[in-house]
Design goal:
By secondary structure, this protein is an alpha+beta fold. The protein has 2 domains: 21-81, no CATH class; 87-138. It is built from 3 helices and 6 strands. A 4-stranded antiparallel beta sheet has the order 3-5-1-6, with no helix packed on it. The longest helix is centred in the last third of the chain and has 18 residues, at 121-138.
């Protein structure tokens, strides 16, 4: 007669094979232990080491979930980043001049540098270089 046990055999946990996606939070506060932090913003008065799984606007994370489902046409909460380039890994000065106008605008937006009314490539380059220099002087 076979032995009966009170514990049933448990199926092994399946490994999540979905690809990692990179997101930047735009609005709200998010909490999830499966998020892998990539770049966290500094928040005055908040010790980020005490709350490692709480994420704020501007934070960049990687995860296997489809966070774009949280967005709606009126309230975009996250943006998917195709390729994350940390702020401290900007192109060298001479590399900036090789970027297209659209790529330069993306750099300015990521670095929160206002381009104002400038539209010419030379003016955009100068504005970005001045913005990066002033940010470096503050830091």
């Amino acid at each position: 007669m076979p032995e009966t046990t009170t514990k049933e055999a448990q199926a092994p946990a399946l490994e999540d094979t979905r690809p990692l996606k990179t997101y930047r939070f735009l609005r709200g506060v998010h909490s999830d232990k499966t998020f892998e932090p990539v770049s966290l913003v500094e928040i005055e008065g908040v010790d980020r080491s005490e709350t490692p799984h709480i994420f704020y606007p501007g934070d960049v994370i990687r995860c296997r979930k489809d966070l774009e489902k949280q967005n709606n046409p009126v309230d975009k909460r996250v943006e998917r980043l195709n390729e994350f380039e940390p702020i401290n890994a900007l192109p060298a000065e001479d590399a900036l001049s090789k970027l297209t106008i659209e790529e330069l605008k993306a750099v300015a937006e990521r670095e929160e540098i206002s381009l104002g009314e400038v539209t010419r490539k030379a003016d955009i380059l100068q504005t970005i270089r001045e913005g990066l220099a002033s940010a470096a002087a503050i830091a």
